[in-house]
Amino acid sequence: MPASTQPVDAPPPAAAPAPQPGPRTAARRRRVAALLLLLPACVALFLFFVLPLLNIVVGSFTDPEPGLGNYVALFTDGYTLAVLGRTLLVALVVTLAGLLLGYPYAYMMTLAGPTTRAVMVTVVLVPFWTSMMARNFAWMVLIQDGGVLQKLFGLVGLDGVTLLGTTTGVALSMTQVLLPFMVLPLFSVMQQIDHRLLLAGQSLGASRLSAFRKVYLPLSLPGVVSGASLVFVLALGFYVTPALLGSPQHALIAQVISVRTRELLDFGGAGALGVLILIVTLIALAASRRLAGAGSAVAAHAVAAGGDR
Amino acid sequence: MTTGDGRIELVDLCKRYGSGPLVVDHVNIDIAPGEFLTLLGPSGSGKTTTLNMIAGFTDITSGAIRLGGRDVAPLPPHRRDFGMVFQNYALFPHMTVAQNVAFPLRERKVPKPEIARRVEETLRLVDLAGMGGRRPHELSGGQQQRVALARAVVFSPSVLLLDEPLSALDRKLRQSLQQEIKRLHQELKLTFVFVTHDQDEAMSLSDRIAVFNAGRVERIGTPAELYRDPGTRFVAGFLGESNLFTGRLRPGGVYEWAGHKWAVRDADGVPAERDLVVRPERLRLAAAPADVPEDANSVQAKVTGLYFQGTHLRAELDYGDGTTGCAVLPPDSVTGIAAGSGVTAYWRPEHQVLVTPPADPHPNEENA
Amino acid sequence: MKARLWLKIVAVLVGLFLTVPTLVVIPMSFSSSQTFQFPPSGWSLQWYENLFTSPAWSTAIRNSLQVALVTTVLATTLGTAAALGLNRLTPRVRGVATGFLLSPIIIPNILIALVIFSAFLRLSLNGTLIGIAIAHTALALPFVVIAVTARLQGMDAALQRAGSSLGAGPFSVFRKITLPLALPGVLSGAILAFVTSFDEVVLALFLQSPSTLTLPVQMFNSVTVQIDPTISAASSVMVLLVSVPILLAQVIGARRGKAGRQ
Questions:
Q1: Is residue C217 one of the residues assigned to a domain?
Q2: Residues B233, B244: contact at Cβ < 8 Å?
Q3: CA A225 from centroid of its chain's CA atoms
Q4: Interface residue B225 vs chain A (CB under 8 A)
Q5: Which domain does C228 fall in, by range?
């Protein structure tokens, strides 16, 4: 049976602590297990991704000769700069258009009832999961000469509008193809905004527009930044649409990289172009991280990956 | 069985994360087989860390833990043979109630018919007979906790660890489950190590309580002992309510506070730095100083609130000088006393107790 | 909260913009013409027939399936193990490791294609199906990690401790508690990996050889290299195959949500 009250003022402990527990401590075991589990994936990524990437980056400075030759050539060959400019322009246009179209759609998704929302989500998810080739092919059919869009333009008096092989055609189709990547991050952020905040704003005297502008818009900003940065980055490096619907005269950077890599085997030059894209990508991601909080850029990709909850 | 007879010894137990301070500071506790010991303290006081070290989920920085006389430091949790009940039940959502309860038996390779029998028996023990086929999410919080209890005792461990198992429940449910736990302890005669921050719970369930403060055990004793003789200011404040006066002990058996002088018995050799504590139920109120008995210690107070609570009357008191307290009185004992009035609060010297303020780590052992 | 009419109209228009262009492939697939003329002048089932009987197309389908399967197995195994490992790390290390594992998502595909093309050239993996599968695994790995990690984070941490306290050793805890609970995440990761591989164009283009054409590459070539309207049949099959399950899943999910909650 329990002893009477123990005085707890034990004599000051001896200097030497008890001998350390053996190597099979809980923390140690966890760490070893974790490392073993991570090893295969990390090794695989390192061998087939990181190492080759470093190779190319280094190669852009050393192949065929050490130095900035490849980069200088990019800016002086009178061709690449135009391509870069065009690519940036298209990416910006696609991003802005996507934002203008995607924001109201995503907002509507948060207001819709369960069945309508299910349909709206499907409408966004299906392009996501459907063959990229199929969608680009569909656009090719639509914007080809003699195709539906040209005929539609003819109806409103604009004859002979060529879209296939033009940057405009590429931008148009890319906007649609990349739209889901804008809507999903937007929606995932908007979903968490409590609509009652808008009501609270109105009860405090703000008009509907004012409440929206001052309450909802700022709260939705992380989603805007995520979606915009995701679409921008995707548009920069996009290959399929410009390759199918564009032309070599109005090439985007991905087409140039493809030619340099596969046909010319000019890994140095292609690498330099790749590094440029990488830098712009990283800047865009860093900016989005700053504007919308850490992890939001990758979160956007994650949302894009999951497609749903 | 690894835990042997259910005796637990914590010897000079310390835990430090990285190069930070000690979160468990030289804890020494000797738990007898079959005892119900509660680790009581505010959050962050080290009680849960201590429990996790007993379980083996957290490594020991220094010191030793012996279960049944055997040092368990080299043993991983799954070989220490104890039962554990968690704060949010931790029932396996992908298994039925019966499968949850059967889990430890299957891990121990108990034959199937025996498993079925023991599962049923244990479910009956916790009043959940016939619920074996349900899934955890179909059960209420109280029922889930009872499944957790069943699962933790079905394999007859000699030690049961309980990590704040009732904090997620509402008050009424808590009380009924407290009784369940007490009943289980009496029936199964296991050693229970119970962690909680709720002092009422600790006092009603435990054989002994170890009060934790900032990683150290300030005091261990039975609920009655700790209540009568808290020993330190912290324990006096944490366990039950108190009227606490921070004055000085003078030579000659006198305690001085804010100009008042109170008689103290058996105070030889006691250091001067002490607080004086009187429990609320030991206070009486007198409307006039003349009504105070001769041999009582008294103090002037203002009644800041008077509350009728059915079985008793509660008076909130302000003693001036920033010191407040309360008195718990028989319901019909207040004549001439109202909220806002001045009164004399008094008590008999044998009902007061001296406690150590925080600076001094060595509380005295005498009752005042 | 009621939405303004213009908002609804815009939403409908955007919805149409998202779906209608793609739907063009369905009538196209029944065209009797040898060109990409739209609307079709006549109707025929020839392209469906060609899709499943012509050696070029059926090989392409088979290649895609093989590559996707290998990718799924590899990516799911590696990714699930990695996610489990990540779960046990301290937060700081976990952040770095996660960043490393997710890095392929951040890099534009064209750059990955260039990088892998040059590497595989040296490893003689260019023009092999296994090469494409390895490349796809690198691409799909992050998605599996994300899917499984999401599932693991939603799991009560105490469950593994409970298993331990009940006598289950680490391997037993993994097999009987962690894995079954993580399974939905593993499955969704696997599906993601499969789709990522099956639908992947750029890497497969770069790594192609006449005998190792995947379906997307075959489709690409049937527009750029040699006009082949079979692509419309392939497209329409893919669109339908995907839309129906997703629509069903969403509607069922919405119905169940309605019944269970407000």
A1: yes
A2: yes
A3: 10
A4: yes
A5: 56-261
- Alpha-carbon distances of A133 from A138, A177, A204, C124, C138, rounded to whole Å: 8, 10, 51, 28, 21
Cβ contact, residue pair B73, A21, below 8 Å: yes
Preceding amide of C39 cis, omega within 30 = yes
Q: Does A31 touch chain B (CB under 8 A)?
A: no
Beta carbons within 10 angstroms of residue A60's beta carbon: 23
**pLDDT tens digits, residue range A123-137?**
888 787 788 888 898
Which secondary structure element, helix H or strand E, spans residue C109, and what is its range? helix C109-123
Report CA A307 to chain centroid distance, whole Å: 13
- What CA–CA distance (Å, rounded) separates C260 from C262? 7
Distance from CA of C166 to the nearest CA of B (A): 5
DSSP codes joined into one string, C83-99: HHHHHTS-HHHHHHHHH
All residues of chain C having their beta carbon less than 8 Å from the beta carbon of residue B83 are: 165-166
Is the CB of B78 inside 8 Å of chain C's CB atoms? yes
**DSSP of B119-187:** HHHHHHHTT-TT-TTS-GGGS-HHHHHHHHHHHHHTT--SEEEEESTTTTS-HHHHHHHHHHHHHHHHH
The domain that contains C112 carries what CATH number?
1.10.3720.10
What is the number of structural domains in chain A? Answer: 1
- Residue C24 maps to a domain: no
State the SS3 of B226-245: HHHCCCEHHHHHHCCCCEEE
Percent of chain B with pLDDT over 70: 96
Segment C169-214, tens digit of pLDDT:
888 998 999 999 999 889 988 988 988 898 899 999 999 988 899 9
pLDDT tens profile B60-86:
999 999 998 899 988 889 989 899 999
Question: Cβ–Cβ contacts within 10 Å for residue C109, how many?
Answer: 21
State the amino acid at position B276 in one-letter form. Answer: L
Q: What is the ipTM of this complex?
A: 0.85
Q: Does residue C202 form part of some domain?
A: yes
